Amino acid sequence: MLLSRPAAHAATAAEDASAPTRRERFRAWRRQRPFVGGLLTALGGVEMFFSGQLDVGRIHVQLGIEGLQATIIPILLVLLGVLAIAMPAHRIFYGVIALAVAVYSLIGVNLGGFFIGMLLSSIGGVLTVAWMPRERKGDVEPEPEPEPDQERGA
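Structure (tokenized):
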């Protein structure tokens, strides 16, 4: 008796079992956008931002107008990564710009965040451009069947 559910609670248990969990909803949302590419692009920007304030031994490399590029380029990469995730319709534009900015960061921001940030952002830009949305099952139109060849009489 203690393990059985009353009839009123049985209906809500069936609804709970069919309702998607938070993890399933996030997975469905993530698959509708270039999530990994945008995330790598943003992580590369964050890494570049923090590497701009680092020194390697006694070497402090900072090119540009008093380090302004060391602030603007990482912020731009983070923004491009977030926008690629938020607006997947414009993914190709954001991915190409992120790739160009990541390559430029090699000379603009401490060797591209000591190469780590540049590689993360470059791979993220390529993944953002290469991502394609899945076709829905109802959107696919069946191809017409080819007509059988008719023999021509001469």
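The two ends are 87 Å apart (CA to CA). The mean pLDDT is 82.
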